[in-house]
Design goal:
This protein is mainly alpha-helical. The protein has three helices and two strands. A two-stranded antiparallel sheet has the order 1-2. A hairpin with a 6-residue loop joins strand 1 (24-26) and strand 2.
């Protein structure tokens, strides 16, 4: 989503969710916000998890190539993750 597609109503919704999860707080009585150290860690961790783990695993979810037993441990973890995601999608009746 580009910045031109992100409307104030969506920003208000996202901000309300972040405030509800105690990831951001208002600065005094202003309309400005700041994140706590714990909130910043949580936001960074969720971004890294999404970009570095979930997206690559979901992108390759339909690949049926098994990880070799003598291969890279990271490849085996991704293969296991792909397998588990595939089973989850089938359980939820989302997978075709």
């Amino acid at each position: 989503m580009s910045a031109s597609e992100y409307h104030p109503r969506q920003a208000a919704y996202d901000l309300k969710k972040l405030r509800g999860k105690d990831l951001v707080d208002t600065i005094g009585k202003s309309h400005r916000y700041e994140t706590s150290a714990e909130g910043l860690r949580m936001l960074a961790a969720s971004g890294i998890l999404r970009e570095k783990v979930l997206k690559p695993a979901l992108r390759n979810c339909n690949l049926q190539a098994p990880a070799s037993q003598s291969g890279n441990p990271v490849d085996r973890h991704y293969a296991n993750l792909r397998h588990e995601i595939r089973q989850l999608l089938e359980t939820l009746n989302i997978a075709a």
